[in-house]
Amino acid sequence: MSYQVALMRSLEVKQQTTSMAFDGKPVSSSVLILLFGILKRNETIETIDLTSANMDVAATRALETALADNHSLTSLDLRGNETLWGLTESDEGRSNAIESLARGLQSNDTISKVHVDAFELQVQVLTGRAPTRELHYPEDRRLSDVSAAVLCTLIEKNPAAKSLDLSKVKTAGQLGHAVGHCLKGNTGLVAVRLQESDLGNEGASALATGLTQNSASAVRSLELSSNSIGEEGAQQLAALLSASTSLTRLDLTSNKLGARGTRAVMMSLHHNSTLTALSLRDNDVMEAGAAAVAAALEINGTLSTLWLGKNRIGDEGVVAIASALVANKQKSQISILDLHKNGTTKVGHTSLTQLLNESLSLTALGLAGAKMQFTETEAMQSAAKEKPEIGRAKAVRLWMGSDMNKWPVL
């Protein structure tokens, strides 16, 4: 009698079995399908170890069907099935297997944990059956591409989670694709944090595309600092800003947008009416990028917080931005403006003094690192005072020294 036949007979006879393991041996698809057929009606099996069982798509679909009807299983181990879970864009069956598994887990009300690799997936939390508002996965937990794909697919239908934090996760090269897939269908998440997650242009583009395609998205805050996002990723983020009706906060600190990427993002703000806070700090914006910022600020009446520090925009860039805000002072909502460490001199400082004299909305201006003469500082401080005659009730706070480390958080 073969191992597999003996196994099947034992399953049918020993109805009080609570756990099963295949001892890391490959099992034919037909046997697995029969096993899952039995599992649909079984009321005792709680754990199944399918490590290295050589699962295929057909078996996974049978598992999906079984999970919908089973009410005893609490733990499932699918490690060692790399052929099935391998993420290859050209292999439709592999992505279908992940989708199939996720649907099965979403329909099951008893499974608490699943392994597709070393990372343990807490199914009840991910699906929202154990309601948790914040889903946070620390960097020391090694999240692979497969775990990321299943995790994000489960979150897609989660109605309870409001925040997803996968910051500093650098072990999943396809993380942007996984999160993008999630955001394409999720309508509950409000904040998504992916700082220092090595997304690059491809990951950022996939994420932005998924979010753009979801007209019912509730995401208001998107944190993508330190992800090596350049012009290509910026183009997709610009498309998102053009389409989004929910996003109010976008953090792109310490990326590689450059002048062209900055221009793409700022062009989208000519018509965007929801974004209120944007950080482009440390992005090599330069004078050319600053010109695009100025063009947007001359029109936009929604943005209230703008971080542009450490971008080498120089006097030319500062003059353009200050002049744009003065020209749009009746409509502009800019309240917090960060321009620290941009290599400005007297020409730029004079332009900012004029802005301080005329701005109706400005409450804080960051200028740390700007080398000023005493007379320049004095003129700027005088211009920053409250001005009831123009409708400004409070003085503008000038951040000109080491206190920049206490600058308002974006």
Please tell me about this protein's structure.
This protein has about 400 residues and is α/β, with parallel strands linked by helices. It has a domain at about 1-115: Leucine-rich repeat, LRR (right-handed beta-alpha superhelix). The chain is built from 15 helices and 15 strands. The strands form two sheets. A ten-stranded parallel beta sheet has the order 6-7-8-9-10-11-12-13-14-15, with no helix packed on it. β8, α9 (about 200-210) and β9 (about 220-225) form a beta-alpha-beta unit. The chain is elongated and about 85 Å long. The N and C termini lie far apart (about 70 Å).
Instruction: State the helix count.
Output: 15
What are the segments in which pLDDT stays under 50 over at least 5 consecutive residues? 89-94
Mean pLDDT: 91
Helical content stands at 40-55%
In the CATH hierarchy, what is the class of the domain at 1-116? Alpha Beta
Counting helices, strands and paired strands, the structural category is alpha/beta
Q: Can you count the beta strands?
A: 15
SSE layout and pairings?
Layout: H1 3-13, E1 19-21, H2 29-39, E2 47-49, H3 57-69, E3 75-77, H4 82-85, H5 92-107, E4 113-115, E5 120-122, H6 123-127, E6 134-136, H7 145-155, E7 163-165, H8 175-185, E8 191-193, H9 200-212, E9 221-223, H10 231-243, E10 249-251, H11 258-268, E11 277-279, H12 286-297, E12 305-307, H13 314-327, E13 336-338, H14 346-358, E14 364-366, H15 374-383, E15 397-399
Parallel strand pairs: 1-2, 2-3, 3-4, 6-7, 7-8, 8-9, 9-10, 10-11, 11-12, 12-13, 13-14, 14-15
Antiparallel strand pairs: 4-5
Helix pairs in contact: 1-2, 2-3, 3-5, 5-7, 7-8, 8-9, 9-10, 10-11, 11-12, 12-13, 13-14, 14-15
